[in-house]
Write a structure and sequence with these properties.
alpha/beta; globular; 467 residues; three-stranded mixed beta sheet; four-stranded mixed beta sheet; homodimer
Chain lengths: 467, 467
């Protein structure tokens, strides 16, 4: 008896709830709004967008064509929701800001939380940024100046400047009264920092702990001591690593003197994780940045460097092959077989690069275990090489009718796969040691080497043993 | 006068604080412990590990060799910190659990937070999992049974079952008293849920809002109404998307009847984002999963499918080339030039696939804007094609001394680059529509096509016009 088999089988796809259904911005809704914008049907547009969350509205703007976007912005200008701006993709944001106009945007930015305002200003293109900076209140302009004094992508730029810090001798009751009476608190927060007289953080107390204890209890008895503090100059990728590693929800940011100057919370870190993971993925794929919303010219520019490097590497391969033109002219089947060796080598190399880059980003791979991973790469390369060499050698033998051709290609496959697997592991590790970003530079370095080596090995062996 | 130029220039690398320095598990520390384990120097080992955070200890275990790991575990068994287990990589965890023994592990799991315990049990290999399930308390075993009733990677498996829910008519004072008097609360939490008499969530109140208001105020006046609820069957990737999209810190999980059964907080979502981004990266690189800590045999198994598919695609290319052996035999320089066309096509295709897969994962690309992106892909393909065709054609002309060879390769480059760019955009979109994971299947599908098309176009044109 087979149980658990419903009569009408349903696929997981049909059953699983999708985020779009919940959020109300399905492709159908987007298409309806786009059509209404094309038709100039203002009533339909207004009705469709009235219930959208600001993040959905940002998503909608991104998905529209340039003309539709401009029409929508013109329509929304008088009641534009400032919260939309931080949610937009960088290149779309620049267009939206330009269309909205300096006055509207400056007003919107002045009304935002300071960290959102700085984030938006930070990411505007040069002439726009200057215009906006000139139009916002002086207080915010000064804050921006302090902000850009921190290195790009540093904890100092990521942190919020509003936080609750209390002295060690306060009680739960005093702390609660302080929070009830102070208006300049962040909108939401999860921990309170306890600081010494020199304003250095000595402990953190989660709000749930404050709430669960009686008023006379001293705050310092509830706190987690010696919190991990983040220097303001630390790179955001390192900050994200610490949050993940230590399961943190928030962390105090300190200046060079160890004084508390801000707080980073996990929701800021989510964006960083997202960004960094996306960057690694795009860089490994040979793209400098997400160019989905970029213009054609920008897209070509972001993809150009990788293609150029690849072209040089392809010319090098062509040069290697040309050295053996005599051999190919005599045994033409080599021309058909040689891409097999290069292609297998390239793919085995990319696999190793991918695993190594990810492991380096996760700090699972360090110099402490690099040697062991290289040894493993050699074994994997040898075994994979032997397996695929047998298959490829047999097929080449059957195809060409020459056993020696099969033997030559099999040997070339073993050599190339070992080489590619080891190099794919070693290159990212070496690049990291040299201070380069392994996700950016590993791919080009690897491809240049594996292709040439594959052709050199195969055609070299062929010249030695087949002529 | 040049200002801001310090006398001894320092690179960013030297200045930027690194997470390892802060956390105290530098490669040097790992190496020192590894050496001490090899030498059997127990005192050094004990001293070095005594201050490690559980996450650092997990990291240390991962970086050791098998023999070192076993020695360390044997030494730590009597005082093993259960919190280490959830932090370990899956394949390392299985080894550690096996070495620790069922009794020790069952005791450790029984002492964990329920969500951590379920997470660990969930990820054990089959025979181990059965042993552990038999050895843990019945209450936890029952909880595990409920847990696995939810689909894999669903919100129901991700959620915590402990949360604070209060009725709408309670006041701030009542809520605070309740939290002070109830011991069975989660260790840390950020929001309180407000539920109706049928236990359906009607609002959320952040702890900071509770703390900032006077005791007689009714909770329902402080709450954010109509919170976004997550169905327990929703896939965790969708959950992560909603959190990012709506900037959520926590969300109530509801059953089919809309009743509150758990809560997902942003720290759970961080792990999901991390996992999903890593999966996409690895899959695009042709690896099924992170195999850094896998044995050699497992590593070969995770890399085998991609290499096999690639082999079939390489054989197809070889077959295409073999159709033109006559042409190559007459103009041998074609053999040297043809990999250039294939390589440029492959890389342009991978760039498009990468951008498209990322955009699909971020839901920036949907069917609503798919057509516009395909049009852009055509334009990018044409322009990139023309640029690189000019360079490649000129070099080929100079090299071979034949203008017609330059013209043929230039035409082939334009055709292949358009084809690859469009296909690299279309394949992931189509795979998504068909319900397949674009990160897994796009690469193989693309490579198979671009290589063959490149050789076919180039050698076909050569046969037509050069002979």
């Amino acid at each position: 008896v087979v149980e658990n088999t419903p009569e009408t089988p349903r696929t997981e796809e049909e059953q699983a709830p999708q985020a779009e259904d919940l959020l109300g911005l399905s492709p159908e809704v987007v298409r309806r709004i786009a059509d209404a914008l094309d038709a100039g049907d203002a009533a339909v547009v207004d009705k469709a967008i009235e219930d959208l969350h600001y993040a959905e509205f940002a998503n909608l703007i991104e998905q529209l064509s340039d003309e539709q976007r401009d029409r929508l912005i013109d329509r929304m200008r008088p009641r534009f929701d400032p919260d939309v701006l931080p949610e937009l993709d960088d290149s779309v944001r620049n267009e939206v800001v330009e269309r909205l106009g300096t006055a509207t945007v400056a007003r919107a930015i002045a009304g935002m939380d300071s960290d959102d305002a700085l984030y938006v200003i930070d990411r505007l293109d040069e002439p726009l940024q200057r215009d906006i900076l000139a139009a916002i209140p002086k207080a915010l302009r000064d804050m921006h100046e302090e902000h850009v004094a921190f290195p790009e992508d540093s904890a100092g730029r990521l942190m919020q400047r509003d936080f609750v810090a209390v002295p060690t001798f306060w009680t739960v009751g005093q702390t609660i009264e302080f929070m009830r009476e102070t208006s300049a608190l962040p909108y939401e927060f999860y921990v309170i920092f306890v600081v010494d007289p020199r304003h250095r953080p000595v402990g953190t107390v989660s709000l749930s702990r404050v709430l669960r204890h009686r008023r006379p209890i001293q705050i310092s008895t509830l706190m987690e001591q010696n919190p991990i503090t983040v220097p303001a100059t630390m790179d955001q990728e390192e900050v994200a690593y610490i949050f993940r590693q230590q399961d943190l929800v928030s962390a105090p940011v300190v200046d060079a003197g160890g004084r508390l100057i801000g707080v980073i919370t996990i929701d800021d870190v989510v964006d960083v994780i997202d960004e960094e993971a996306g960057e690694d993925l795009l860089n490994l794929g040979g793209v400098r940045e997400d160019d989905l919303y970029s213009t054609v010219v920008e897209t070509i520019r972001t993809r150009f460097p990788w293609l150029s490097i690849n072209l040089c590497s392809a010319f090098l391969s062509a040069f290697v092959i040309s050295l053996f033109e005599g051999t190919i002219a005599k045994i033409v089947v080599l021309a058909a077989l040689m891409p097999i060796v290069a292609s297998m080598g390239g793919n085995a190399g990319v696999q190793s690069v991918t695993v190594t880059v990810r492991a380096l980003a996760m700090k699972e791979l360090t110099f402490a275990n690099a040697r062991r991973n290289l040894s493993k790469a050699i074994v994997v390369g040898v075994l994979n090489g032997l397996i695929f060499a047998t298959v490829i050698g047999s097929v080449a033998w059957a195809w060409s009718g020459r056993f020696d051709v099969g033997l030559v290609i099999a040997s070339a496959v073993v050599g190339t796969l070992i080489f590619a697997t080891v190099l794919g592991t070693a290159i990212p590790i070496l690049l990291t040691r040299l201070g380069a970003d392994p996700a950016v530079a590993s791919g080009p370095t690897l491809t240049t080497m594996t292709d040439s080596i594959a052709f050199l090995t195969f055609l070299g062996l062929a010249t030695l043993f087949l002529l």
